[in-house]
Description:
Blueprint lengths: L1 H12 L3 E3 L2 E3 L1 H29 L6 E5 L6 H17 L3 E5 L6 H8 L7 E6 H10 L10 E16 L8 H10 L5 E4 L5 H13 L4 E4 L3 H10 L4 E5 H9 L4 E5 L24 E9 L4 H14 L3 H8 L4 E2 L6 H19 L6
Parallel strand pairs: 3-4, 3-5, 7-8, 7-9
Antiparallel strand pairs: 1-2, 5-11, 6-9, 6-10, 6-11, 6-12
Helix pairs in contact: 3-10, 5-12, 7-12
Amino acid sequence: MYKFGHGIRSLCSTQHVVVGNVVLNQWLRRTVLLLAFGTAASIATTAALAQSASGWPNKPVRLVVPFAAGGNTDTLARIAAERLSSSFGQPFVVENRVGASGAIAAEFVARAAPDGYTWFVGATPNLLIVPLVQKVNYDGLRDFAPVAVIATNPFVLGIHPSIPAKTLAQFVAHVKANPDKLNYASAGAGSIGHLSGALLLARAGLSMAHVPYKGGAPAVADLVGGQVQMYFGNASELLPHIRAGKLTVLGVSTARRSRELPDVPTIAETYPGFLTYTLNGLLLPSGTPRDIQERVAQEMARMARDPLAIDRIHRTGSDPSSIGLGDFAELLRREQPLWIEAVKSAGIKPE
Length: 351
């Protein structure tokens, strides 16, 4: 640092700076000085990040959740926060930033300092769907470093018992025999339930009207009441009604059968390649030191094997995940085309 600083002082005190046989004028001399100071600042920033990585965490860490407290993503974030607080000896504090379908929280974290103290508890809608249907100031793949998936949530296809169908094939045949006479509900336009329904209709060649609701609870209530005939929902939403005989379940949206419904086939068994679900994971702003990413990924992998943590996650209706660095990023890239297809199937035009 002494030689570098001495060189800058020499530039400042010399009337002209000579490079070979060329005499730099006053303007170019100032440019050289600015570049020199910029390089010094860059070196200082890199050194500071390296120091923060080696001593991380030495203060509270915040986990930014894009949804309100009490929901599935929030609950999973708090399970992860408790584990990480215990493991790293610093508070991991959940902070709910609600609005714009999660875009407000995502943009906040994407623009945060890449020092490991601001995390995004991102879900499939924020990362892969919202950027397709509305204008946002972040890229769900480019602006984040995906570290670990906490858990995944399958979607269940439920229908009203008045429909004479016990299998997906029977349901498809019934809808084809009654075009435009049936409808399906969702928790809102552009929600995963909406896109799952639209994707199924496109794959099966069906025509049904879409009825969007303001949330899953009113949609399920009308499904049970018979005002709508079909709904893709979280297992936790539909299971009580399925067990009570108030709904008929036809399939699950994941690649493998659900732990809660082992006898119910996947939709992919009838329509290969069909796959929709929600993941909730921990992400950092791009450029965060790799050492921080690796340490948290390792701890989350240990949590995925912990029987107590597994039980807590199962009680939310979710499945624990051990997907970590590299695999998480690849998973998002691989699934993006499916959501592009689903958005097109739903006829949603970007804002």
